[in-house]
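Subject: complex prediction, re-run

Hi both,

The earlier run crashed halfway through, so I resubmitted it with identical inputs.
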Amino acid sequence: MKTLYLSCTLLIAAPLSAAPNGLETLESSVELLESDLFSIDLWSMRSTQTLGDWELETGFSFTDYEIDYRVTDFDFFGEDTIINEETYSIDLTASRAIQDNLSFDFGLSYRDGFSSYREVWLDTFFDQHYAPLEGVEGHELYENFDASAYGVFTGVRWEYLPANAIASVTLSRIQDNVSPGYEIDFDGIRRGELVLATTSISFVTENVLTERLRSRAALTITDTSAREIRYAGEIALNAAIGQNLIWRNRIGAATEDPQYDAHFFDTAFEYQATERTAVYLQGRHYEDSGEIENALLFTTAAPALDNDSVTLGLRYANENWTAKFAYTYSESDFAPTNLNVDFFQNLYVDDNWTNFQFAIGKTF
Amino acid sequence: MVLTATVFLAGCETVPAYRQEHVSKAGMTFSDSLTGSNEASLTAQLEPGSQTSGGAQASGCSACR
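This time it finished cleanly. Structure:
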């Protein structure tokens, strides 16, 4: 698949000097996230194009999961294995100005495969433990489902103070066809939800506060089937504190009844080293209270998590080309669990992660 | 809180475009593009609660959210 992706990239990149009419930007990136047990590669392409009164944005991505799946000593039904999974996704957004300073967006998205390495790991766990249980009541519910999702969204964007302030509202609906979880007790096997439908509404405003301050605030309200409403928000403030120095700050939080809370903050300094090159250093802290669960015997919910990261990045831009390289080092620390009954201690494992990003783009 | 909201919605002053040299720099803008974003696309893999958009947190667990 990587070969196919690279071939597609070259096919698109080769005629860059003779780009199709209306093509405005073309970007490509690769991102590699790795720890001792997990490896996730993300390859992405994105383009924007003008067609008459419409502006189209198209995105394609491919994610490759490689997991060193290890079972615990007391897991007699599981076995160590190497997991490889691939996920493809595509999205299309169409925008059109409906008045001066007011535009309308409409978009579609589709994903074939899992959206996270945790899902891949848990799918393998359930497959190893429930597929062999033929004859147990409820086993007819077991099936190795494929994960996928499709979504639709629409929104409006209003530049209510020209060149100074923008507000947008976006409404989206996503249907996730998940690989479900299973549980067993004296009544037999039970299966979790097969489909999770999510409706969300987002409010975003971005403002130029002064000649040296730019801000962004976002609030998202999300309603997912069989769950309480989740509220998530973030505020970011960027400050030009010198001729060549920028200070970026962001805080965010999410909450969902009855007991889920998450919050993060990050801060970064960016130095404009030359006319075309800038370097930045970012620190970030994230923590959550652990996933909400009501399992019968053995919980699969992630325990509380702390994650600390530091990023060193390099940005390059000239008249037509932009590029970014970034390296991030992270330390994840999960809250302790009862290791004698925790089948998932090799999934929710304290680990050190590295992330390499490289992105390049051309403006026509 | 009202003051904070007002500042974030309307700014401290209206800054004409010709005086936006500093706030127009690449590092000062907010972007979702692959080269312009300051956040890794895979951040949500490590920090599932930091997503402020997207679909359900489908963990593959029958009881987890």
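Residues 159 and 280 of chain A are 30 Å apart (CA to CA).

- K.
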